[in-house]
């Protein structure tokens, strides 16, 4: 594991395990929990189940009891194509890696099952469900070291394979830049899907660069061209059209989404998505 990745994981662990305290025990909570009643705290009870409001009123610790507690199945599916090999602050692949780490550590902290998947034109890798930090770290290393060059951004077959391989109903974080059209409707029929859109601001608000030498990270093709004001205007029009089509698709299928730029803190944005304060 390289030094940069080690630093990233240390920071992410600290955010997930140290900064989420009090009323925020995890990034997400088990929606399968069915509240039953309150009873006085007993030695050995999980302190995360203490009802602090009732405890303060009665001056004795009380815990919440639940009918049939069911663990969540959390999936971080990283859509890895050549377009992620870009960034002005840091490349998008690094942000995808960090988001996947936050999701994985949050699942472990909440004692939920975590599954990591790398998707391109096919499912490149899918890890066995785990509740251990070691399993999360193993997956994160694969995402961080994944060779993007030459990988196409046509994810449809890969997402179809992912649908077939995830048997249990899950909360799926679909992480990528979503620059290419993608149909998530099949996944959303069976699972709860959250789209995490990773972008660089320059992709949406480019500046005229004049004469440039461009390389397509998907095909390796190169071109010498002039990226002036006219080119910028045409490009922005295409980006806007792509965004409108993407948002229509997500809203139609009731898929929650969030956009994270390469110069932003992914942890803070994800916390806001779930309506929590740190």
UniProtKB/TrEMBL annotation:
Residues 37-228 form the DUF58 domain. This is DUF58 domain-containing protein. It comes from the Bacteria. It holds the Pfam family DUF58.
